[in-house]
Design goal:
mainly alpha, 308 residues
Amino acid sequence: MNEVLTCLILVVVAALAGRLWVFLPLPCARLAAWILLVAGVVILAPIDWDPIARMVALCSFLLASMKSLVYLEWAARGKGLGWGRHLSFAFLWFGMDPGAFMKRRPAVEWRSHLRIGLACIVAGTVGALVVRNSGGTNLLLVFIPMSIGFHYGALRVLTAGWRAAGTPVRILFRNPLASTGLADFWAARWNLGYSHMMARTVLRPCEAVLGTRGATLAVFLTSGILHEIAITLPVAAGYGLPTLYFLLQGMAVEIERRVIPSSLKRLWAALCVVAPIGFLFPPEFRDEIIMRCLQGLPKFSLTAPASL
Protein backbone atom coordinates (compact mmCIF):
# COMPACT_ATOMS: atom_id res chain seq x y z
CA MET A 1 0.00 0.00 0.00
CA ASN A 2 2.86 2.38 0.80
CA GLU A 3 4.33 1.77 -2.66
CA VAL A 4 1.00 2.53 -4.32
CA LEU A 5 0.67 5.74 -2.30
CA THR A 6 4.23 6.72 -3.22
CA CYS A 7 3.46 6.18 -6.89
CA LEU A 8 0.26 8.23 -6.74
CA ILE A 9 2.00 11.10 -4.93
CA LEU A 10 4.82 11.13 -7.47
CA VAL A 11 2.37 11.22 -10.39
CA VAL A 12 0.33 14.07 -8.90
CA VAL A 13 3.42 16.09 -7.92
CA ALA A 14 5.01 15.57 -11.33
CA ALA A 15 1.84 16.56 -13.19
CA LEU A 16 1.32 19.77 -11.23
CA ALA A 17 4.95 20.81 -10.80
CA GLY A 18 4.76 22.78 -14.03
CA ARG A 19 2.77 25.45 -12.22
CA LEU A 20 5.74 25.88 -9.86
CA TRP A 21 8.45 25.74 -12.51
CA VAL A 22 7.01 28.75 -14.33
CA PHE A 23 8.09 31.01 -11.45
CA LEU A 24 11.74 30.07 -11.95
CA PRO A 25 14.11 31.36 -14.65
CA LEU A 26 13.61 29.14 -17.68
CA PRO A 27 17.02 27.37 -17.57
CA CYS A 28 16.59 26.62 -13.85
CA ALA A 29 13.01 25.46 -14.40
CA ARG A 30 14.05 23.07 -17.17
CA LEU A 31 16.81 21.61 -14.99
CA ALA A 32 14.44 21.20 -12.03
CA ALA A 33 11.83 19.46 -14.17
CA TRP A 34 14.32 16.96 -15.60
CA ILE A 35 15.82 16.31 -12.16
CA LEU A 36 12.33 15.53 -10.81
CA LEU A 37 11.77 13.12 -13.69
CA VAL A 38 15.03 11.28 -13.03
CA ALA A 39 14.43 11.20 -9.26
CA GLY A 40 10.94 9.74 -9.70
CA VAL A 41 12.22 6.99 -11.99
CA VAL A 42 14.96 6.13 -9.48
CA ILE A 43 12.30 5.81 -6.76
CA LEU A 44 9.87 3.77 -8.83
CA ALA A 45 12.28 1.46 -10.68
CA PRO A 46 13.14 -0.83 -7.71
CA ILE A 47 9.50 -1.45 -6.76
CA ASP A 48 8.90 -5.20 -6.99
CA TRP A 49 5.57 -5.29 -8.78
CA ASP A 50 4.16 -7.37 -11.60
CA PRO A 51 5.69 -6.14 -14.91
CA ILE A 52 2.36 -4.80 -16.17
CA ALA A 53 1.79 -2.85 -12.96
CA ARG A 54 5.36 -1.50 -13.12
CA MET A 55 4.82 -0.41 -16.70
CA VAL A 56 1.60 1.42 -15.79
CA ALA A 57 3.29 3.15 -12.85
CA LEU A 58 6.38 4.21 -14.80
CA CYS A 59 4.40 5.34 -17.87
CA SER A 60 1.97 7.31 -15.69
CA PHE A 61 4.86 9.09 -14.01
CA LEU A 62 6.60 9.75 -17.33
CA LEU A 63 3.42 11.17 -18.83
CA ALA A 64 2.87 13.40 -15.80
CA SER A 65 6.47 14.63 -15.83
CA MET A 66 6.44 15.41 -19.52
CA LYS A 67 3.12 17.24 -19.11
CA SER A 68 4.84 19.61 -16.68
CA LEU A 69 7.80 20.09 -19.01
CA VAL A 70 5.47 20.89 -21.90
CA TYR A 71 3.41 23.26 -19.74
CA LEU A 72 6.61 25.00 -18.65
CA GLU A 73 7.79 25.58 -22.23
CA TRP A 74 4.31 26.71 -23.30
CA ALA A 75 3.77 29.02 -20.31
CA ALA A 76 7.21 30.59 -20.81
CA ARG A 77 5.61 32.52 -23.67
CA GLY A 78 3.29 34.32 -21.28
CA LYS A 79 0.38 31.90 -21.46
CA GLY A 80 -1.37 29.95 -18.73
CA LEU A 81 -4.34 27.80 -17.74
CA GLY A 82 -6.70 28.13 -14.79
CA TRP A 83 -6.64 25.31 -12.28
CA GLY A 84 -9.68 23.51 -13.70
CA ARG A 85 -8.39 23.50 -17.25
CA HIS A 86 -4.89 22.61 -16.11
CA LEU A 87 -6.18 19.58 -14.17
CA SER A 88 -8.11 18.47 -17.24
CA PHE A 89 -5.01 18.79 -19.42
CA ALA A 90 -2.79 17.07 -16.86
CA PHE A 91 -4.97 14.10 -15.90
CA LEU A 92 -7.72 13.61 -18.50
CA TRP A 93 -5.94 13.90 -21.83
CA PHE A 94 -3.00 12.12 -23.46
CA GLY A 95 -2.05 15.01 -25.76
CA MET A 96 0.62 17.63 -25.15
CA ASP A 97 -1.01 20.86 -26.32
CA PRO A 98 -2.10 22.98 -23.31
CA GLY A 99 -3.39 25.64 -25.70
CA ALA A 100 -6.32 23.43 -26.68
CA PHE A 101 -7.66 23.86 -23.14
CA MET A 102 -7.46 27.66 -23.00
CA LYS A 103 -11.07 28.31 -23.89
CA ARG A 104 -14.21 26.45 -24.82
CA ARG A 105 -15.25 26.65 -28.46
CA PRO A 106 -18.81 25.87 -29.55
CA ALA A 107 -19.60 23.74 -32.58
CA VAL A 108 -16.33 21.79 -32.70
CA GLU A 109 -16.82 18.83 -35.04
CA TRP A 110 -16.66 15.53 -33.15
CA ARG A 111 -19.07 12.97 -34.66
CA SER A 112 -16.67 11.74 -37.34
CA HIS A 113 -14.02 11.17 -34.66
CA LEU A 114 -16.49 9.11 -32.64
CA ARG A 115 -17.47 6.99 -35.65
CA ILE A 116 -13.86 6.33 -36.62
CA GLY A 117 -12.84 5.62 -33.05
CA LEU A 118 -15.63 3.12 -32.43
CA ALA A 119 -14.90 1.38 -35.73
CA CYS A 120 -11.23 1.06 -34.83
CA ILE A 121 -12.08 -0.28 -31.37
CA VAL A 122 -14.23 -2.98 -32.94
CA ALA A 123 -11.67 -3.81 -35.64
CA GLY A 124 -8.79 -3.86 -33.18
CA THR A 125 -10.67 -6.01 -30.67
CA VAL A 126 -11.73 -8.52 -33.32
CA GLY A 127 -8.20 -8.64 -34.71
CA ALA A 128 -6.71 -9.15 -31.25
CA LEU A 129 -9.22 -11.91 -30.51
CA VAL A 130 -8.34 -13.70 -33.74
CA VAL A 131 -4.62 -13.48 -33.00
CA ARG A 132 -5.17 -14.51 -29.39
CA ASN A 133 -7.22 -17.56 -30.22
CA SER A 134 -5.10 -18.66 -33.16
CA GLY A 135 -2.05 -18.77 -30.92
CA GLY A 136 -0.13 -16.16 -32.93
CA THR A 137 3.01 -14.76 -31.32
CA ASN A 138 4.53 -12.73 -34.16
CA LEU A 139 5.25 -9.28 -32.76
CA LEU A 140 3.64 -7.33 -35.59
CA LEU A 141 0.58 -9.57 -35.75
CA VAL A 142 0.10 -9.09 -32.02
CA PHE A 143 0.87 -5.38 -31.85
CA ILE A 144 -1.06 -4.09 -34.87
CA PRO A 145 -4.62 -4.98 -33.71
CA MET A 146 -3.86 -3.75 -30.20
CA SER A 147 -2.59 -0.47 -31.64
CA ILE A 148 -5.65 -0.11 -33.86
CA GLY A 149 -7.94 -0.69 -30.90
CA PHE A 150 -6.18 1.66 -28.46
CA HIS A 151 -4.20 4.27 -30.41
CA TYR A 152 -6.65 4.70 -33.26
CA GLY A 153 -9.79 3.63 -31.42
CA ALA A 154 -9.94 4.47 -27.72
CA LEU A 155 -7.86 7.64 -28.04
CA ARG A 156 -9.97 8.79 -31.00
CA VAL A 157 -13.14 8.30 -28.92
CA LEU A 158 -11.51 10.35 -26.14
CA THR A 159 -10.75 13.01 -28.74
CA ALA A 160 -14.42 13.01 -29.75
CA GLY A 161 -15.48 13.40 -26.13
CA TRP A 162 -13.33 16.45 -25.53
CA ARG A 163 -14.35 18.02 -28.84
CA ALA A 164 -18.03 17.41 -28.04
CA ALA A 165 -17.40 19.33 -24.81
CA GLY A 166 -16.03 22.26 -26.82
CA THR A 167 -12.32 21.60 -26.28
CA PRO A 168 -10.62 21.60 -29.71
CA VAL A 169 -8.08 18.86 -29.12
CA ARG A 170 -6.50 17.30 -32.18
CA ILE A 171 -6.21 13.62 -33.05
CA LEU A 172 -3.10 11.93 -31.68
CA PHE A 173 -2.55 9.27 -34.33
CA ARG A 174 -2.97 9.94 -38.04
CA ASN A 175 -3.09 7.34 -40.82
CA PRO A 176 0.48 5.94 -41.02
CA LEU A 177 -0.18 4.50 -44.47
CA ALA A 178 -0.40 8.07 -45.79
CA SER A 179 3.15 8.88 -44.66
CA THR A 180 5.29 10.46 -47.34
CA GLY A 181 8.50 9.28 -45.71
CA LEU A 182 10.18 8.39 -42.44
CA ALA A 183 10.48 11.98 -41.21
CA ASP A 184 6.79 12.53 -41.97
CA PHE A 185 5.87 9.31 -40.14
CA TRP A 186 7.59 10.34 -36.91
CA ALA A 187 6.78 14.05 -37.02
CA ALA A 188 3.25 14.12 -38.41
CA ARG A 189 1.68 10.64 -38.26
CA TRP A 190 2.66 8.53 -35.26
CA ASN A 191 1.76 9.79 -31.78
CA LEU A 192 1.47 13.51 -32.48
CA GLY A 193 1.24 14.29 -28.78
CA TYR A 194 4.65 12.71 -28.30
CA SER A 195 6.17 14.50 -31.29
CA HIS A 196 4.79 17.85 -30.06
CA MET A 197 6.21 17.09 -26.63
CA MET A 198 9.67 16.32 -27.98
CA ALA A 199 9.63 19.40 -30.20
CA ARG A 200 8.86 21.64 -27.22
CA THR A 201 11.05 20.02 -24.59
CA VAL A 202 14.07 18.78 -26.55
CA LEU A 203 14.23 20.00 -30.15
CA ARG A 204 13.73 23.73 -29.62
CA PRO A 205 15.87 24.05 -26.45
CA CYS A 206 18.71 22.11 -28.14
CA GLU A 207 18.62 23.84 -31.54
CA ALA A 208 20.48 26.94 -30.35
CA VAL A 209 23.36 24.78 -29.12
CA LEU A 210 23.40 21.78 -31.45
CA GLY A 211 21.78 23.11 -34.62
CA THR A 212 18.76 21.52 -36.26
CA ARG A 213 20.41 18.20 -37.17
CA GLY A 214 22.08 17.80 -33.78
CA ALA A 215 18.85 18.68 -32.01
CA THR A 216 16.97 16.14 -34.15
CA LEU A 217 19.41 13.43 -33.13
CA ALA A 218 19.00 14.53 -29.49
CA VAL A 219 15.24 14.02 -29.91
CA PHE A 220 15.73 10.43 -31.05
CA LEU A 221 18.29 9.74 -28.30
CA THR A 222 15.92 11.13 -25.65
CA SER A 223 13.09 9.09 -27.13
CA GLY A 224 15.19 5.98 -26.76
CA ILE A 225 15.91 6.72 -23.11
CA LEU A 226 12.26 7.44 -22.33
CA HIS A 227 11.24 4.20 -24.02
CA GLU A 228 13.84 2.34 -21.96
CA ILE A 229 11.94 3.54 -18.88
CA ALA A 230 8.58 2.52 -20.32
CA ILE A 231 9.61 -0.78 -21.92
CA THR A 232 12.80 -2.33 -20.52
CA LEU A 233 12.55 -1.23 -16.87
CA PRO A 234 9.16 -2.93 -16.29
CA VAL A 235 10.50 -6.29 -17.50
CA ALA A 236 14.12 -5.75 -16.33
CA ALA A 237 15.49 -6.95 -19.66
CA GLY A 238 16.46 -5.74 -23.11
CA TYR A 239 18.33 -2.70 -21.84
CA GLY A 240 19.71 -0.53 -24.63
CA LEU A 241 17.60 -1.99 -27.41
CA PRO A 242 14.91 0.75 -27.55
CA THR A 243 17.66 3.39 -27.52
CA LEU A 244 19.37 1.58 -30.40
CA TYR A 245 16.06 1.50 -32.27
CA PHE A 246 15.56 5.24 -32.02
CA LEU A 247 19.17 6.04 -32.85
CA LEU A 248 18.72 3.96 -36.00
CA GLN A 249 15.57 5.96 -36.75
CA GLY A 250 17.47 9.23 -36.34
CA MET A 251 20.22 8.09 -38.69
CA ALA A 252 17.65 6.77 -41.15
CA VAL A 253 15.87 10.15 -41.19
CA GLU A 254 19.17 11.84 -42.06
CA ILE A 255 19.88 9.25 -44.77
CA GLU A 256 16.38 9.82 -46.15
CA ARG A 257 16.99 13.56 -46.30
CA ARG A 258 20.31 13.18 -48.11
CA VAL A 259 19.99 10.09 -50.30
CA ILE A 260 16.53 8.56 -50.68
CA PRO A 261 14.54 9.82 -53.70
CA SER A 262 10.97 10.92 -53.12
CA SER A 263 9.61 7.95 -55.05
CA LEU A 264 11.17 5.52 -52.55
CA LYS A 265 10.59 7.37 -49.29
CA ARG A 266 7.40 5.52 -48.37
CA LEU A 267 9.10 2.16 -48.87
CA TRP A 268 12.12 3.41 -46.93
CA ALA A 269 9.87 4.48 -44.06
CA ALA A 270 8.12 1.10 -43.90
CA LEU A 271 11.42 -0.80 -43.90
CA CYS A 272 13.02 1.43 -41.26
CA VAL A 273 10.05 1.31 -38.89
CA VAL A 274 9.23 -2.40 -39.23
CA ALA A 275 12.54 -4.21 -39.81
CA PRO A 276 14.16 -3.36 -36.44
CA ILE A 277 10.89 -3.43 -34.43
CA GLY A 278 12.30 -6.25 -32.31
CA PHE A 279 14.75 -3.74 -30.82
CA LEU A 280 11.90 -1.50 -29.71
CA PHE A 281 9.92 -4.37 -28.17
CA PRO A 282 12.39 -6.97 -26.85
CA PRO A 283 11.15 -10.58 -26.49
CA GLU A 284 10.74 -10.18 -22.72
CA PHE A 285 8.42 -7.19 -23.19
CA ARG A 286 6.43 -9.07 -25.81
CA ASP A 287 6.03 -12.09 -23.52
CA GLU A 288 5.54 -10.32 -20.17
CA ILE A 289 3.39 -7.39 -21.32
CA ILE A 290 1.89 -7.72 -24.78
CA MET A 291 1.12 -11.44 -24.74
CA ARG A 292 -0.19 -11.34 -21.18
CA CYS A 293 -2.55 -8.53 -22.14
CA LEU A 294 -3.82 -10.73 -24.95
CA GLN A 295 -4.28 -13.58 -22.50
CA GLY A 296 -6.93 -11.49 -20.78
CA LEU A 297 -9.14 -11.61 -23.86
CA PRO A 298 -11.85 -14.29 -24.01
CA LYS A 299 -11.23 -17.50 -25.88
CA PHE A 300 -13.38 -18.78 -28.69
CA SER A 301 -13.13 -21.64 -31.12
CA LEU A 302 -12.19 -20.95 -34.73
CA THR A 303 -13.61 -24.31 -35.82
CA ALA A 304 -17.22 -25.41 -36.03
CA PRO A 305 -18.41 -27.67 -33.21
CA ALA A 306 -18.63 -31.34 -34.03
CA SER A 307 -22.06 -32.66 -34.92
CA LEU A 308 -23.83 -34.77 -32.34
